[in-house]
Every structure is written in C-alpha cells, then in structure tokens.
Amino acid sequence: MLTIIDRYIIKKFLGTFVYAIALVVIISVVFDLSEKIDDFLKRDAPLRGILFDYYLNFIPYFVNLFSHLFIFISVVFFTSRMAQQTEIIPIINSGVSFWRLMRPYFITAGILAVFSFMLNNFILPHANRNRLEFENTFIYTRSGFSDNNIHRQISPGQFAYFQTYNPIENRGYRFTLEVIVDNKLISKLSAETCQWDSLKNKWTLKNYRIHRFGEMNEYIKTGFVLDTTINLHPSEFKRRSTNVQTLNYGELNDFIEKEQARGAGDIEYYMVEKYQRTSMPFAAFILTLIGAALSTRKVRGGIGVNIAIGFVISFAYILFMQVSSTFAINGSFHPALAAWVPNIIFAMLAVYLAVKAPK
C-alpha cells in the first residue's frame, strides 16, 4: 500500500520530470525552428509536414535523448527542495529508514524505465522514419560522397572496397572485390566504376579486370562492361548512422543475425545499439538512487550546490557511456560489456552514496 508520503514523492518526481522535459522541449523546438526556417521556406515544406511529420516526431526523439539526464536532475531538484524545507528530517525521525524512503523513488524510476524501454524499442523507430524522411526531403541536401575508402566483408572470405561512393547515383569508384581462402588471395576483381542497375538488380562494372591466382598458372581477363551479382545493396551504405534509429527491437535483431550469417565485420555499431536499448532503462534506477543520496542532506549553498553536483555526475555518466561505446565500435570492448560497464560502475557509486547518506 502506498502511504501519503509515497504518493507525495511520486507526484513530486513525475511532476518535476514532466515539467523539466516540457520546458526544454519547447526551448529546443523554438531554437530548431529558428535554425531551419530558411530551409523550410526555400524548399516549400508544407505546414502539415513541419508540424506532424517533423516536430511531432522530433519531440519523442529529444525526450529519449535526454530522459536520463532529466530523471537525475529532477530527483536532485525536488529532493533538495524537500531537504531545504526540512521535510526529509521529520520523515527520517519518524522511524522511516532511508531504503524505505527510496521505495516511491524506485516505483517512479520503474515507471520511467518501462516508458524508456518501450519508447526506444517500439515507438521511436517509427517516429524516426517519418522524421528522417522529412529531413532528407526538405532540410538536408544529399549530395557529394557518403564516405571514402569503404571496406566491407560481404560474405565469408569476400571483401569489397570502394575508394569513393556517390549515394545519389549509387555509383562507386575504384572498386575491388577480393576472394580470400585460408589467408590466400584466390581472385581479385577490379573496376574503374561500379554502378547499381535497379532494373536488373545487378552491378555494372566498367573498365574491369579479373585476376585469378593459381598454384601453377594465373588467369587475367579485362573488358569494358560487365554485369555481375554481388552480395551488396546500395541501401547498406545509408544504414549505419541513421537507419539504425528506424529499426525496432525485432528488426534490429534480425538485421544483426543476417549480418553475422554473411560474415560482416562491422556490426559492432549495431550490437552496441542493441545492448544499450536494454541497459539504458536500468540507468533510471541508478541515477535516481545517486540523486536521492546526494540530496537528502541539507547543505550550505542551497539547492544550487546539489544541482551543480548532479550535472557533473550526469554528464560524467553520459561521457563514460560514449567512451565505452567508441571502444566497442573500434573492436576493443565486447558490445555488451561496453553497454553495461557504465551502469555497473555508477551502481557501485550509487550504493556507496546511499550507505553514506544521512540516516
């Protein structure tokens, strides 16, 4: 059964969180609109599209991006106010233990954690599809090369390389396809250009050269045009940084399984995303405990001191998460370890602060 104090704390927690998120979202929308209004006018973006396709889907993206930061700040803010108004001391003196006091905090953190998990895995991907489609149509000019020196393992033992690739024309330059078996180069196909033919669903090579290596002899063939089937689709060059945001939990798992089955060597980015979607909701409990433990004591300097400490710790958590993700993408960490190590370290910090909190 929830007591009056439990309901009071839950109401304070949720109210402060919703108010803080709403205030920052409004400010962000105003700044974003002032930055992009020229693009909207230049490309004749419809008002309905701006409101419903872009900003209606921009809000959940922004809420998810900063939700854990504002969970922490909300706990620090309203708990510090309770401490400054001498509301914590009577609760503790009445025989309520610190861990019993944390029950409404954890109930609210659980609600926000479930909301974060559902938003990140099922709601946000659909919203991102509409938002990114609108951005690609009315905001960003998609020109130039997507990347240089692109290396892809398209199947076990098959490696493709583009010196440059144009995503608008679906054309690559200085293309090479190598087949390696037992660390030995078996064949090498190279071409000046590699153009995707959407009608044939094949790649058209121009000025190509086929070189096969044998133990006793070698085979070399050159030509001007060659249509060939390669286990590579143009959409894969646009998928890494933005399209992962449009995959829900099931689609992301299916994509990772397909990439692993074909022996792709650059799936760490997606693995990190998969594990972070599970680990990030647990951060709500950890940051809630840290914020409450820091704020239950009445300190000199008022609420500002606790809020400043809260900002430092929350940004340290975000920085730690980014650093560990970078190590995982570069192959130094296992993706699951990179996603959960920040939670483990800050969970130990949370327990330590809770033990030292005023009883």
Fold topology:
Layout lengths: L3 H39 L4 H38 L3 H6 L4 H41 L8 E9 L2 E9 L4 E11 L2 E14 L4 E12 L4 E11 L20 H13 L6 H28 L7 H27 L5 H22 L3
Antiparallel strand pairs: 1-2, 2-3, 3-4, 4-5, 5-6
Helix pairs in contact: 1-2, 1-4, 2-4, 2-6, 2-7, 4-6, 5-6, 6-7, 6-8, 7-8
What distance separates the N and C termini?
23 Å
Number of domains: 2
Mean pLDDT: 85
Helical fraction: 55-70%
| Unreliable segments of 5+ consecutive residues | none
Alpha-beta content class? alpha+beta
Number of extended strands: 6
What value does the Rg take, in angstroms?
27 Å
Shape: elongated
Indicate the proportion of strand residues. Answer: 15-25%
Largest sheet: 6 strands, antiparallel
- Count, helices: 8
The succession of helices and strands, N to C, reads: HHHHEEEEEEHHHH
Strand order of the largest sheet: 1-2-3-4-5-6
